Amino acid sequence: MFGTQISAGPKRVLGRLALCIHRSGLYYALATVAVGLCIAVSIFLASRVAEQIDVKTSAESDKVPWNLAQSEVELMSLQLALHDATENPAMDLNDVRLRFDIFYSRIMILTQSPLHAPLREARDVAKALDEVTRFLHHAAPIVDAPNREFRLQLRELELATAAIRPAVRTIALTGIQLSSALADKRRADFVTTLRDLAVLTVALVIFLLAAVAVLARLSAINTARARTERMMYERIGTVLANTLDAVIEVDADGRIAEFNAAAERIYGYTRDEALGMPAARLGPEQSPPTPIVDTLRNLCGTGLSLTMARHKSGRQFPVEFAVNALSDHKGESYVAFARDITGRLDRENELRQARDRAIAGEKAKQAMLQVMSHEIRTPLNGLLGTLQLLEDTNLTPEQARLAEVMRASGEFLMQHVNDVLDISQIDSGMITANPMPFTLQALVREVAANQTALALTRGNRIEVVDSLGQDRRVNSDPKWLRQILFNLISNANKFTSKGSITITLDRPDPAGPYRIAVADTGIGISQANITRIFADFVTIDQSYERTAGGTGLGLGIARRLARKLGGNLTVESQLGIGSTFTLTVPLTDLPAEPDDAAPASTAPAPSVRQLSVLMAEDNPVNRLVLRELLQREGHTVAEAHDGQEAVDLAQAQRFDLILMDISMPRMNGITATRAIRDGQGPNRATPVAALTAHASDSDRFLQAGMAEVVVKPISRAKLREAIARICGDHCPDDPDTADKPLLDAAHLQEMHDTLPHDRFARLLDSYMAEADRGFAKLAAADSALLDLDRVAQRAHKEAGSAATFGLTHLRAELIRAEQLAQSGDADALAPVLAQLPEIWQQTRRALANWRRDHAKG
Amino acid sequence: MTSAFRTTGPFTGRCISILMVVLAFFAAPAIAADLPQPTGRVVLTVDGDIGVTNAPGAAEFDLAMLEALGTVAVETSTVWTQGVIRFEGVPLRALLERLGIRKGQIQAIAANDYGVAIPVSDAVDGGPIIAFRRDGKEMSVRENGPLWIIYPSDSNPDYQTDAIYARSIWQLVRMTAKP
């Protein structure tokens, strides 16, 4: 019941759609021709038959033979009457006269009647008729005469009458012959006509039969087509009725003409309510309202559109819809297909939010991992550094053993933290390969050599088998490659005891990737576990002696790095026999250059002069460790607890090197570095080394003006290396002061503008007088006998005064002197002190010139 | 006459016609009651089933009597003559009504004993006449006279049939009414 009600609508729509498809003129043309032909033939035949059997023609012609025969009869009657009268003189003659008159009238008809015209044209008849007419003209006066005279001539008349009998006979016979011929001809014509009629009838019947056959065929085709169409309508009707999309037809007046079940569900109107309703009520409220038909026409054929629709309840909801135009005898109409996409949009939003949450979660995880690593490493670093210091003190053997265990545990923990940090950095894509040229064999041998001692403790022997033949210089990231190999070898070492570790280098395809296989003769890995060993945090065989401990990240890191280099890491293993890890990695070949094939690990021996170092570090443990490390190297150390203190100190005193922690309260290392670099203080050009746990941020630090990045945890070796690098480049033995201007004119000007004029002049006069005396005294002093502490104090004081007046060069030299005095380096101090009076004289002249220029202005 | 009235009463047209005839008789009461005796030569004898006679079982007419029944003219051609001819005569209808012949047929006989049956229903207004003058002159026997039944075939194509030509009897001398 429900089905039929709703399927009616779409069917009608389809019916209209299909109407224009099958409107063929063929039937009509055929039928018109057939009917026209039938009518024409019928008219033709009817007229022919009517003509043939025309009663009048027939009557006129049939009368002829009778008339002629009757003529002969009348003549014989006359003859008999004459004979009777001749024989019987007493007989009334009127009967004779009557017979004559009748015969006369009969002949008159023959000579006058149009019926007999053909007869009269026959030569014999004309002659006979002429003879008879002459007889009548001869006889008439006799007949008309009085009885007495008539009676006298009866005999003669009888003879004359007899004489014309052959003529009358001729007329009659000829007439009959003519009539027969005429009748024959007419009969023949009629037969012809009938034959034509028969032929035409047969033709017509054949034609009609053919037409019937054609019509039957067409009818069959139509029936089949109608059945197909009906089935199609029903099928599509069912589809439309049951479709989830609303199907709405709108007529040219903008009123709803059709409304399917889905439309009822989506818009809330019943079909009965919707039919005839303005379609605009289904759309969003508009002011001013656009005619819905215009809107629909514009949307025709433009594909799917998105718009808001209005439910019966007034609720608005998003729909996706398409419009098509229909044209039929009722005019233009539109069919709209609409789909409620509220749910879809909601789901899309949910998905988007879920994705955003996932991304945010992932970011948070990364950030947390990094922060945690940092937060763990910083105290751990302190612990390890302190332990190192502790080991350098006089310890009892028992204490030394305990300290050693502590240090080993600490380093092990540090390794774990570093592994986690590595994984998170690789996964977050924060690190990229840093390719540089190196020799492959040298790198492999170096890593192997570094592990040899450790391997020996477990009774293992490490062997390198080089199948490449000659040294290969390649371009790749040696750090990563070293780490991969390190992880593989140390892993092999962990699971092998009293066995061998063989590292094989080869290249199966001369142009393909290199292959480095690390094979051990250890416990091997079961087939069940072999697929898991590259997974993170996986440690196989928990029961193995705990020397084989580890985070389970080593192989995961190795495989990640291998893949980042464009290669791969695979494993083959047999339980109880051993494992072989194979690294396949494409490396760019470079031409051989044996000279710079030295691996980076050959650090130069520390031969660095003593430096004054400013150390900015908020963590007290780190401060303690760093200070100790630096002082043992012979450097002097100034401490700042945060960035601001560092800036203040740098303003007051010149340093050879600044070690700057990045994460500090009040002012971070980057801001502080910028402040020092951009300021006017004596450390504008002093190299700054960043102390950080965030190796990945190196670029940012370098941009801020830092010369070096020292990644925590800081060991003695790292510190030495960094200082060597920095001072190799940036710390000449004699600080270059030649480019320092004598005066900071801007500073002087500012002071001059700030103070009252006379007060500024008095201050300057006073300073100059005092300086004259001071530097004169200094020049006279014997450096050998100098109290270095007093020199330092004095230089410090003079430097402050010089800074006040912007005497840049002088101040720099004084600070240098102060530092040298503080460090107790009397030999270095002497030449510095010696040149101070000369510098003062230069400065004094410059100051005098400046005053003269400004006194005028 | 009253019986005639009674039998044709339902037919209004017929009633009016008969009424007119009756009125005509009242207008000429001398011949109303009976058919007069012919004074001239008898040209037509009507016998058989007739209601009015002036001889034993028959009604005999001379030309004057026929003419007295009312003369009409018919102009027509015939298949036996040349050109259009003006015939004058008494309507067959007038004669038959005068004799009370209303149904059946008339056997018409010619001087040469030619005979043909004419249905009484042929006797209608505008129908056949018993002609006795041709182009204003009485017709001799030589001219198919003295009486010739003429159907106006020029004005009525229905009369151009074989049967009608057969009924166009000339040299008419006798009519016998048959029920």
- Poorly predicted spans of chain B: 1-11, 18-33
Broad shape of chain A: rod-shaped
Q: How many separate helices of chain B?
A: 6
CA(first)-CA(last) distance of chain A: 110 Å
- What shape does the CA trace of chain B take? globular
Please tell me the CATH architecture of the largest domain in chain B by its name: Alpha-Beta Complex
Q: Which percent range fits the helix content of chain B?
A: 25-40%
Secondary structural class of chain A: alpha/beta
Number of domains of chain A: 6
Please tell me the total number of domains of chain B.
2
According to DSSP, the number of beta strands of chain A is 18
Largest sheet of chain B: 5 strands, mixed
> What's the CATH class of the largest domain in chain B, please?
Alpha Beta
Distance between the termini of chain B: 18 Å
Keywords:
heterodimer, A: 857 residues, alpha/beta, Beta-Lactamase, 6 domains, five-stranded antiparallel β-sheet, five-stranded mixed β-sheet, 27 helices, 13% strand, rod-shaped, disordered N terminus, B: 179 residues, alpha+beta, Sulfite Oxidase, Chain A, domain 2, 2 domains, 10 strands, globular
Structure description:
The complex is a heterodimer of chains A (857) and B (179). By secondary structure, chain A is of the alpha/beta class. Chain A folds into 6 domains: 1-242, no CATH class; 246-340, 2-Layer Sandwich (Beta-Lactamase); 346-409; 432-591, Heat Shock Protein 90 (2-Layer Sandwich), CATH 3.30.565; 612-730, Response regulator (Rossmann fold, 3-Layer(aba) Sandwich); 745-856. In chain A, strand 16, helix 20 (669-678) and strand 17 form a beta-alpha-beta unit. In chain A, the strands form 4 sheets. A 5-stranded antiparallel β-sheet of chain A has the order 2-1-5-4-3, sandwiched between helices. The longest helix of chain A has 89 residues, at 154-242. Chain B is 26% helix and 30% strand. Chain B folds into 2 domains: 1-33, no CATH class; 35-178, Alpha-Beta Complex (Sulfite Oxidase, Chain A, domain 2). Residues 1-11 and 18-33 of chain B have low confidence and may be disordered. The A-B interface holds A 55-56, 58-60, 62-63, 70, 73-74, 77, 98, 101-102, 104-105, 108-109, 112-115, 140 and B 79-82, 111-112, 114, 140-144, 160-162, 165, 170-171.
